[in-house]
Specification:
- The protein is an alpha+beta fold and 104 residues long.
- It is built from two helices and six strands; from the N terminus they run ααββββββ.
- It has two domains: 1-47, no CATH class; 48-96, no CATH class.
- The chain has helices spanning 8-11, 15-25; strands at 36-37, 44-45, 51-56, 59-64, 74-81, 84-92.
- The strands form two sheets. It has a four-stranded mixed beta sheet, with no helix packed on it. A two-stranded antiparallel ribbon has the order 1-2.
- A hairpin with a 2-residue loop joins β5 (74-81) and β6.
- The longest helix is centred in the N-terminal third of the chain and has 11 residues, at 15-25.
- It is globular, with a radius of gyration of 15 Å.
């Protein structure tokens, strides 16, 4: 995992990134800038390993990856870390109601 926050504008000038985005786009997937926020500034900071960006009822927060609040949520963001995919973003929709995973 990177020790800094990626610059998406610069990444979009890279042919490898564009090629990967083309492949992902055909599958309904995209590219995101993996980042977090701290309580002391308005800047994005590197994502903290072991955390998940969790969206629930239109509110986003960062929780530990084993936090029980993630029960019933669906994965929405994954990154390649140490040779494999790791889910770093999850979403629960429906005002706390559990949403079944998508079919297919």
């Amino acid at each position: 995992m990177a020790n800094s926050v990626a610059d998406l504008d610069s990444a979009l000038a890279n042919p490898e990134v564009l090629s990967a985005m083309e492949v992902l786009g055909r599958r309904g997937l995209g590219v995101t800038v993996l980042h977090s926020h701290d309580d002391t500034s308005d800047v994005m900071v590197p994502f903290v390993p072991g955390t998940v960006q969790f969206e629930d009822d239109l509110q986003v927060r960062f929780v530990d990856s084993d936090d029980p609040v993630l029960t019933g949520s669906v994965p929405v963001t994954a990154v390649w870390i140490n040779g494999g995919p790791v889910v770093v973003g999850r979403c629960r929709q429906g005002h706390g109601e559990q949403v079944p995973p998508p079919v297919g």
